[in-house]
Amino acid sequence: MTSGAGPQRPAVRPAVRPATGADLGALQALARRTIDTCYRGFLGDEAVDWFIGSGASDAHVKSHLEQGGVHCLTEDGRIIGLSVLDGPTVDLMMIDPDHHRRGLGRLLLRHAEETLLARYPDIRLETFPGNTSAKSFYEACGWVLGGRIEGGEGPAKLEYTKSRAGAPRDAGAGT
């Protein structure tokens, strides 16, 4: 039985591509929405409102886009995720809150890892100590907690690392 609405086009699989200047507005909106939705529980309303309201979030995305290293995760022509790669660091990684729990974070993180590990023997990322879902996610993806970073701008962070050789606890896995 057909609905008479015409043929449906198949869904386009999620894909990662380099960001362009034309993506700036969508990337900034995605970052603001993700911070607003996901960061309040561990950073608090005041910090989130300041970061978004001050323009710091938009400026961060814009400066990295101008330097290169920003990638978009797209699905059906829409940007649903972003990553910022800066030297050996995954500086920022976000998935639109409406698209969480679909394996898209793993797809985007795998792209970042492959890109960086092709250039550097050891790579790193940071997350906030209170961001329990991010910590669990990174650990499930084989990242190793390196320690707590204090004294910089803003709240404390945790550093995670990964190397070409794999985390020590993964040695012999799959044999």
Polypeptide structure, described:
This protein has 175 residues and is α+β, with helices and mostly antiparallel strands. It is built from 6 helices and 7 strands; from the N terminus they run βααααβββαβαββ. The protein has helices spanning 24-38, 40-43, 45-53, 56-67, 104-117, 132-140; strands at 15-18, 70-75, 78-86, 89-95, 122-127, 144-149, 157-163. A 7-stranded mixed beta sheet has the order 1-2-3-4-5-7-6, with helices on both faces. Helix 1 (24-38) crosses helix 4. It is globular and about 50 Å long.
Protein topology:
Elements: E1 15-18, H1 24-38, H2 40-43, H3 45-53, H4 56-67, E2 70-75, E3 78-86, E4 89-95, H5 104-117, E5 122-127, H6 132-140, E6 144-149, E7 157-163
Parallel strand pairs: 4-5
Antiparallel strand pairs: 1-2, 2-3, 3-4, 5-7, 6-7
Helix pairs in contact: 1-4
Question: How is this structure best summarized?
Answer:
The chain has 175 residues and is of the alpha+beta class. It has six helices and seven strands.
Q: What ranges have pLDDT less than 50 throughout 5 or more consecutive residues?
A: 166-175
**Broad structural category:** alpha+beta
Spell the H/E element sequence. Answer: EHHHHEEEHEHEE
Which range does the strand content fall in? 25-35%
What's the story with the biggest beta sheet? 7 strands, mixed
Average residue pLDDT: 88
- Tally the beta strands: 7
Count of helical regions: 6
How far apart are the first and last residues' alpha carbons, in Å?
50 Å
CA-atom Rg in angstroms: 18 Å
Helix share bin: 25-40%
Q: List the quaternary state of the chains.
A: single chain
